[in-house]
C-alpha cells in the first residue's frame, strides 16, 4: 500500500489544521495516480487509520460527500501543476497543500 501523507496548513482564519492526503491508486497495479483525497485529521493519530489492520466493519463506509472530514481532492501532473476539486478550501489553502505534496515527492 502507498502510504498517505500527513501535514498541516494554515486556514483562512489563521488557525492551523492537520490534513491527511490519501493517494489514489489504479486498482489493477497499485500505481499512484498523483491524485490525493484530502481529509481533516481531527484525531492527530498520524496515518495509522489507513494502514493498521483492523477488524472488519459492517457497513461503516460513507461516501466522501457525506463525510464531514472530506476536504476534496487534488491532482498533480508531472510538470507540478495542480488541480483541486472541491469547495472546502480557499485558493491559499489549496496552494499550501499542493506545495506540501510537491515537496514530499
Describe the model:
- There is one protein chain.
- This protein is an alpha+beta fold.
- The protein has one domain.
- It is 16% helix and 34% strand.
- The chain has 2 helices and 5 strands.
- Strands 1-2-3-4-5 form a 5-stranded antiparallel sheet, with helices on one face.
- About 6% of the residues have low confidence.
Summary, kept brief:
This is VCBS repeat-containing protein. This protein is of the alpha+beta class and about 100 residues long.
Number of domains: 1
The DSSP helix count reads 2
Question: Segments where pLDDT lies below 50 for 5+ residues?
Answer: 51-56
Largest sheet: 5 strands, antiparallel
Helix percentage = 10-25%
Describe the global form. globular
**SSE succession:** EEEHEEH
Q: Bin the strand percentage.
A: 25-35%
Assembly category: single chain
Strand order of the largest sheet: 1-2-3-4-5
Number of strands: 5
Round the Cα radius of gyration to an integer and report it.
Answer: 14 Å
Structural class: alpha+beta
What gap, in angstroms, lies between the N and C termini? 16 Å
Mean pLDDT: 83
Amino acid at each position: 500500500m502507498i502510504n498517505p501523507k500527513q501535514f498541516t496548513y494554515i486556514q483562512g482564519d489563521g488557525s492551523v489544521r492537520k490534513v491527511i492526503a490519501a493517494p489514489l491508486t489504479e486498482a489493477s497495479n497499485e500505481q499512484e495516480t498523483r491524485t490525493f483525497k484530502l481529509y481533516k485529521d481531527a484525531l492527530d493519530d498520524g496515518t495509522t487509520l489507513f494502514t493498521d489492520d483492523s477488524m472488519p466493519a459492517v457497513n461503516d463506509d460513507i461516501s466522501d460527500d457525506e463525510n464531514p472530514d472530506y476536504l476534496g481532492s487534488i491532482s498533480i501532473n508531472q510538470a507540478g501543476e495542480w488541480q483541486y476539486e472541491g469547495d472546502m478550501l480557499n485558493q491559499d489553502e489549496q496552494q499550501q497543500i499542493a506545495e506540501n505534496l510537491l515537496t514530499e515527492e
